Amino acid sequence: MRKALLLVIVLGVTAGGSGQDSVRDTVHNLSVSGPGTVRAAAETRVCVFCHTPHTSSFQAPLWNRQDSGGAYQMYWSETLDAYTSQAAAPQPNGSSKLCLSCHDGTIALGSTIASGDIPMSGGITTLPTASDAYLGQDLSGDHPVSFTVTDHLIATNNAKGDVPLVSLSEMRNHPLVRLDDGDRIQCMTCHDPHHDPFGDFLLTSEPGELCVACHS
Description:
There is one protein chain. This protein has helices at residues 2-16, 94-103, 151-159, 168-173, 207-214. The N and C termini lie far apart (44 Å). The longest helix is centred in the first third of the chain and has 15 residues, at 2-16. By secondary structure, the chain is mostly helical.
């Protein structure tokens, strides 16, 4: 109970802040007060589109959205060592799967577990396909996600003479790299959904800094 209460307090503080560091001031604020063109018709709560203190999904703490259950076409390249083929690519998991519950356009933005279907303004239901934020289910043109980074993977890449990767320990300790608990690359490795001071929810104003944090 204390753990759940603490998470509620943390979410409340995050949503209630001010300036670029507050989710309230980003397009991830889908409430009626949101600054973007995609927002609710009347809902005033900021966090409810993703989080709930009760009846949450098992996928993440206080998670308030269903899993789309869709199959994705993942990135593949002949120089990629993380998996052997496009068919062998892991399907999105972890935080990437959470992001895709909105960004793949298959589930209504206002569809929540605990609060039912929240009406959106302008007749919008799912993320508009014309939006830069719409990814769909074809992720073949995006950086690969949800694969595990290992010392063996890094050594295999570097032995081939490809653009060298830094060591796993360097990735774990780099201030701009956020591997998940399984040492997997996810959307949140480079993006922070609650803060957007640099644009595109990136962790730095210089995207190249993210590249060289892993690819030396």
